[in-house]
Amino acid sequence: MNGFLAVWRKELTGYFLSPAAYIVTIFFLIVMGAIFSLLVSVLAEGPAGVTVMNLLFGSPFFWMTMLALVPALTMRLFAEEKRSGTIETLMTAPVTDTAVVLAKFAGALSFYAFMWTPTLIYLFILRYFSADMAPPDPGPLAGGYLGALLIGMFYLSIGLFCSALTSNQIVAAITTFAAMLLLFLAGLLDYVARGDLVQAVSAHLSSYSHMLEFSRGAIDSRPVVYYLSGTALMLFATVKIVEARNWK
Q1: What is the pTM of this model?
Q2: Burial level of 201, CB count in 10 A (0-12/13-18/19+)?
Q3: Where are the chain's structural domains?
Q4: What average pLDDT is seen over the chain?
């Protein structure tokens, strides 16, 4: 447990001391703020029955930001350790390979959650500066943030796995982006495919559809299980990749 906490603190400190992490955070908050501002103006004149959370998480700009954000957060996790040679020191420390993988994942997830925290100010803006609008519904609010957390966990685990495959951060980022894009596009086949099986599989994989449902406050156990099991599978695969280097 001490080894896990030590690696987790190291990773989290690395994020807060990295100028690149702050650039990514500023970019994320600017994009999210711009989307929020645009959607509020749309809602003021748009149809009733649509929530800010639903439009926010259904926006193409949100998904483009996610596809750029996750590779930037995960590309260095193992790739930089391999490039600099510090992976040898880390792997010979009194900490298991599983603890190293989980701690690095926890560090990335903690910073990801930190990046989302300032967006909570949107709720106060809606509540105190929009007297003509109904107060935010806690259901869609909780569902939207839960969906962002679950999908973020899954995508971050994919990024961690890709980073463990290479010593080049750029390759890790491109591989992560490609894997996420394929998953995202596979989920959109539900809207264009004709076969029942393809539509069923696509609907099960569709992060876009899942996020819309979460942001409506409709929390289905199937997407929750999908993202948790997918995250666990990718972390298990990453542990096996890390363990494989001991046999070289």
Answers
A1: 0.88
A2: middle
A3: 2-247
A4: 82
